[in-house]
Amino acid sequence: MACLPQPRGLLPLWTWLLLAGGAAEAGKLLVLPMDGSHWLSMGMVVEKLHRSGHEVTMVIPEVSWRLGSSVPYPVRTYKPSYTLEDYNRVFRRFADNQWDDIPKDLSSALSNPNTTVLFEYLFSNCRSLFQNAELLRFIRESAFDAIFFDPFDQCGFVVAKYFSLPSVAFTRGLFCHFLEEAAQCPSPPSYVPRGMSGLSESMTFAERLQNYVHYLQEVSLCSLFLQTPVNIAGDILQRPLTVKELYRDTDIWLLRTDFVFDYPKPLMPNMVFVGGITCHESKPLSEEFEGYVNASGEHGIVVFSLGSMVSEIPMAKAMEIADALGTIPQTVLWRYTGKPPSNLAKNTKLVKWLPQNDLLGHPKTRAFITHAGSHGIYEGLCNGVPMVLMPLFGDQMDNAKRMESRGAGVTLNVLEMTSADLSKALKTVINDKSYKENIMRLSALHKDRPISPLDLAVFWVEFVMRNKGAPHLRPAAHDLNWFQYHSLDVIAFLLAIVLTVVFIAVKSYMFCCQKCFGKKGKAKKAPKSKSH
Amino acid sequence: MACLPQPRGLLPLWTWLLLAGGAAEAGKLLVLPMDGSHWLSMGMVVEKLHRSGHEVTMVIPEVSWRLGSSVPYPVRTYKPSYTLEDYNRVFRRFADNQWDDIPKDLSSALSNPNTTVLFEYLFSNCRSLFQNAELLRFIRESAFDAIFFDPFDQCGFVVAKYFSLPSVAFTRGLFCHFLEEAAQCPSPPSYVPRGMSGLSESMTFAERLQNYVHYLQEVSLCSLFLQTPVNIAGDILQRPLTVKELYRDTDIWLLRTDFVFDYPKPLMPNMVFVGGITCHESKPLSEEFEGYVNASGEHGIVVFSLGSMVSEIPMAKAMEIADALGTIPQTVLWRYTGKPPSNLAKNTKLVKWLPQNDLLGHPKTRAFITHAGSHGIYEGLCNGVPMVLMPLFGDQMDNAKRMESRGAGVTLNVLEMTSADLSKALKTVINDKSYKENIMRLSALHKDRPISPLDLAVFWVEFVMRNKGAPHLRPAAHDLNWFQYHSLDVIAFLLAIVLTVVFIAVKSYMFCCQKCFGKKGKAKKAPKSKSH
């Protein structure tokens, strides 16, 4: 295919925007974000909405890590039931626990006390928010056009319902099977791997069995896990309700994934895929990092980060890792805030923070060691860097599986791996050219889209503000119970008709036979008796 | 919401396109279109692809109505098995038949000889194409990047398979359940009305029953209807194959609908919705039509067309219609080529052709009488004109139902309606303001999208050319048989385990009981005998 000089389709897009909406309209948006890495991409959407002239107000708890600091739009806070020290302690215990044990199944993951206590903290925020009368009055009087929220702590659903606000949820997914239930989206467990199962789309019979059992566990256990937020919602809304009832009025689901990263599966019209928002052109490196990269010579560098939530790891594991890193000729830049391992090799530089996307975008970067958080994965994917994946919790096992099954990375069990395993994995993704080729192909596919994920996310938030929701995208399935949805009443009715017809036919046939053969029998017998 | 002066998101889109693909690439595209109204929107996509610098070649039969005339790109023809006279005669018989009888169900629609003979003509094109050795050599030597086809005559699938070409299908839908089967898209018959059922998304039990029976008819009858093209495909590809096998390798399905017009339902990632391509800003009217509109005074005009395929109607029906049109104060512009009805009122102007979109876009247009073809519906919808819908065949019943159920039009049974019915329907959509409000709301929603349907269609054809298909959007469901897809083997296995466990438990319990009570019995009996 020969190159033509002009980029395509710009003028018509412009024309269409003008034709469709005329000048942009400024709306009033209530934002309920989630702390931690979740805010990385949602923050970019909110910032762009603010820059577009919308009146954005963010509501957050007083206690948080990265929310509300230095944002250019108003922030309202409420007092949570815990202090920052409590929050840090509970999170530390949760994070440290990941180094002891990777849960074997959904049941053990959901019932781990270190997990449940963290979630009880998060879930309690909603009660705290609704105890702040002044904040409630402010929200009511502000007459927001819509609410834009991260559903992880569940409170966005409650606020949307309480104030009857059109709503846009921004998330990687929901717990268990609830996104499918809330959006009425079919998801056959025969080829759609369940969340946190760590399975791929191509499953053996045993894996399909495992996936199905995982699904059965979701259906039977997950409502229990979400009992607290559902009870809180019930208290606030003053009526009992189920998880599905709490979730199902969401107008648009902005999902932080796409089908270059995720496996193809059924969708619904109000699901919009915006994976890759944090990928942007890499900026020039600071002097410090430029120095590291330049000094790496022909071998280049490896970027190593376990994400913003995990910066320390047990010393024995750290030494094992350090040992492995010393076996490759690349310079390794390792984001690590703990005590340096004593066996750190010369090629390994520990840094407290690193410009991840800018480093991944550097042509000398050969590999990325990551915990497989979705933001990190997308930065690796966008920049075309093969990965060594060391998933720890949440969706990370699934994310790792997706990269591995596409030949773009090697997954390691971080608890069981040896130094040799890590060394081998690194050498594989760096030296086996297929990994680089595959991640470059995925990178090109991911970027080949008609509109950037950030613009798409902004468009749909604005759409919901402009149109007071998106009820035209709500499927009629919401009006059916599960019996009707699966047409079981119709099938039962048809079966009843068929059985009745068969019954009548058989009875009629038997009756006829009886009559005919009875008569024949008699008729035959009669002549016989006569002949005698 | 106050107005801001700047249109949104232009610079980032530009940046994204530059970042993503760099300069646009010119590809080689093979186009297999369908004659008649189908070409209206597909032609616009092909024209834009040609203007974007792609090397487009269209392959069509020598005999056609509107294909190939005055297009600015090369056209290659093959000799079909029929003459233009045959084609016109068969189509006229098919069209005339619509005035005699509206089929009661799918079975009678598919078995009508006037329908089947028309389709046998269309299906035979593929055999004719493959009998043209020179054309086949040309296609092979051209090394096209992709094929872009209308699947109505089925031949695009065969050409794509024969030459192993990545493919984009452009259609309103496929016959029966085959789109869902080909794309592995779930479609619960409890709320997704089957094609040609004329049902809405909100169904009573009786309607759900009807929809389910319609679905059963599709599954049992439709393969027979498509036996000819499947046999032709089998002969050409030299292996027996099913309809699903013929369809399922299509990379992208460009579907001429959206969820303002259609009801929300499950989708798959390789389905792209591009309804409304023919809607564009209306151009100024010619002197003739400007004269009619100006002379209509305060009452304005009504636009009446039964589409490009039906221009004549039986005289008795035409007189009934003419009678009704005389009862409204609006001027009616009626596209009609038959003998003028003798009772034509003064307010009714017969024209052989009318600039439909431009008239519908005129502010004095009060209503649109249409056969509910999808192109016409979208032009009415874009321009916000309430409709009186007189569906005749194919998807028209469904299209009419969608507009009616949204309060944007009134549907009439064209065979059974009286003059009074049409008069009443016209007065209703013109005078009841809710119809205008509803169609204006739908119009605004339809236009409120991040990218125009034409640009979106062009993007995906280019995507498939650039990337040699879209295998990353192909769900793993294609690798499962129906038993596995529905997890029936897994469920059977789990049931077997449960039953075995229950069986062993019951047997063990009974064995224990027998042992215990047996012993106890004996033990009890022993002391008793001793005591005696």
From TrEMBL, chains A, B:
Residues 1-26 form the signal peptide. It is a single-pass membrane protein. Coiled coil: none annotated. Its EC number is 2.4.1.17. It is an enzyme of class 2 (transferase). This is UDP-glucuronosyltransferase. The chain crosses the membrane at residues 490-512. Pfam families: UDPGT (PF00201). The keyword Kinase does not apply. CDD domains: GT1_Gtf-like.
